[in-house]
From TrEMBL:
The UniProt record lists the keyword Chloroplast: no
InterPro entries with a match to the protein in the record: GOLIM4
Keyword terms, alphabetized: Coiled coil
Domain of life: Eukaryota
Annotated coiled-coil segments of the chain: 5-60, 90-188
Keyword set includes Coiled coil: yes
Protein name: GOLI4 protein
Origin organism lineage: Eukaryota, Metazoa, Chordata, Craniata, Vertebrata
One of the record's GO cellular component terms: Golgi membrane
Amino acid sequence: GVFLYNHLQQKVRNAEALAQKYKQQQEALSAQLQVVYEHRSRLERSLQKERGEHKKTNEDFLVYKLEAQEALNKEKQDSMNRYGALSSQHKILKNQHDDVKKQLLDLQLQHNSLKLEHRKSLESHGQKFAQLQQEKDSEVTNLQDTVFKLREENKLLRKAHQEVHSQLLNAQAQMEEFRQLKEALQKMPGLR
């Protein structure tokens, strides 16, 4: 009986020790579970916050997407309007370019015609100039001959004039001698 009693007491002590051990494990698990619950609570709050932020971000993105779509549509419309205006301006400029090209061709033809006419005029003027130059040279030669002849004639006339002047002086001297002689003769009473 004592042995059985001791054996039972040993079992009770073992059971108490085991119970104490389990109790400690349960307290540790409870503490861990409390930590897990708190962590889960924090995670749920964080998740709720993230969901709220995600919802706000999603709403902001939808607003941004809508505004971007409107801006894109407006830009597209503006681009189409600008393209229409540029296309119209391009047609006008193309027509102006064709007109200017046609005018250029006409002016080139006119220029070629004037160039040919100018060349003919130059040739004609060149011939006339050569002819006039020849006539002028001939006239200059004739005038030079005439000037030479006139100079020679002028020399002869000067020489003749000097001779006439000399004869005139001689004649005057003779006349003076005759006058003096006449006066002398008139003064002589026998010859009167």
